[in-house]
Specification:
disordered N terminus
Length: 243
C-alpha cells in the first residue's frame, strides 16, 4: 500500500508537470502562429505596395524582393510548424513533438539566413546595397534623355524620397553630360537635395528591414526555448506511460 501511494504521488507529479508544459507550449505556439502570420502579411504588403512595386519593375532591381522571399517562406513554415507543435502538445504525441523539433532546426537555419540577407540588402550602412543601387541609378541617368521610362521612374523616386542622382548626387548628371532635372531640387526652397538616391532609398527600406530582421531573430531565440520545452515534455510523457 505504501508503495502504491508513492507511485500514485509520482504519477500525479508527472501529470501536473505535463499540464504545465502543455499550457506553456500551447500558448507559445499560438503566439508564434499569430506573429508569423503578421510578418507574412508585412511581406505581402512589401511585395504588392503599389509605389515600391512600380519602382522595382521599372528599374529592374529585384534583390530586396528576393531577400524578402526567404523571410516570407520562413514565416509560413513557422506558422505551419506552430500548428503541428500545438496539435502534438494537445494530443501528447511524442512522435509529432519530435517531428516538430526536427523541422524547427531546419526552419531556424532558414530564418537566420533570411535575417542576414535582408540586413545585407536592406539597411543604409550596407556597402553591398549602396553599390548595387548606385549601378542601377547610374544606368537610369545614362538613359535619361533616350529612354522616357528611365527618366520617368528616376523623377518619381527623386521627388518621393527627396534625393538626387546616384553616388555623386547632381554631379552624376553633370559628368554624364545630362541636364540636372528639377526633381533634384526641393519643391519649396529650390535647393538641391544633398542626399543621394541609393542612400535615401536604403534609408527608406530600413523600417521594413528592421521589422522583418528583428522578428526573425526573435523567432530564432524562441525556437531554442520551444525545443527545450518540447524535450522536457517528451520525457514527461514517456515517464507517464512507463508508470
Amino acid at each position: 500500500m505504501g508503495y502504491d501511494s508513492v507511485r500514485n504521488d509520482d504519477v500525479d507529479t508527472i501529470y501536473a508537470r505535463i499540464q504545465k508544459l502543455q499550457y506553456t507550449l500551447f500558448i507559445i505556439n499560438i503566439g508564434t502562429l499569430l506573429i508569423s502570420m503578421a510578418n507574412f502579411s508585412i511581406c505581402l504588403w512589401i511585395r504588392f505596395d503599389l509605389d515600391f512595386w512600380e519602382w522595382i519593375e521599372e528599374i529592374g532591381w529585384y534583390t530586396y524582393w528576393n531577400c524578402m522571399y526567404v523571410v516570407m517562406i520562413a514565416m509560413l513554415l513557422h506558422a505551419a510548424n506552430s500548428l503541428l507543435s500545438a496539435f502534438a502538445t494537445f494530443t501528447e504525441s511524442r512522435a509529432l513533438l519530435l517531428t516538430s523539433m526536427v523541422l524547427r532546426v531546419f526552419i531556424w537555419i532558414l530564418t537566420l539566413t533570411g535575417a542576414v540577407v535582408i540586413c545585407l540588402y536592406g539597411v543604409e550602412e550596407s556597402t553591398l546595397l549602396i553599390n548595387e543601387l548606385n549601378e542601377v541609378f547610374m544606368g537610369l541617368i545614362y538613359k535619361w534623355d533616350s529612354d522616357p521610362r528611365a527618366s520617368r521612374v528616376m523623377t518619381m523616386i527623386q521627388e518621393y524620397v527627396g534625393c538626387c542622382g546616384a553616388g555623386g548626387n547632381r554631379y552624376d548628371y553633370i559628368n554624364a553630360k545630362k541636364p540636372v532635372p528639377d526633381s533634384c531640387r526641393h519643391p519649396v526652397t529650390g535647393n538641391s537635395y544633398t542626399s543621394t538616391c541609393p542612400q535615401q532609398l536604403a534609408w527608406w527600406l530600413e523600417p521594413w528591414t528592421a521589422t522583418l530582421a528583428g522578428s526573425s531573430v526573435a523567432f530564432c531565440a524562441m525556437d531554442v526555448v520551444v525545443i527545450w520545452i518540447s524535450t522536457r515534455m517528451r520525457s514527461c510523457i514517456r515517464l507517464m506511460k512507463d508508470n
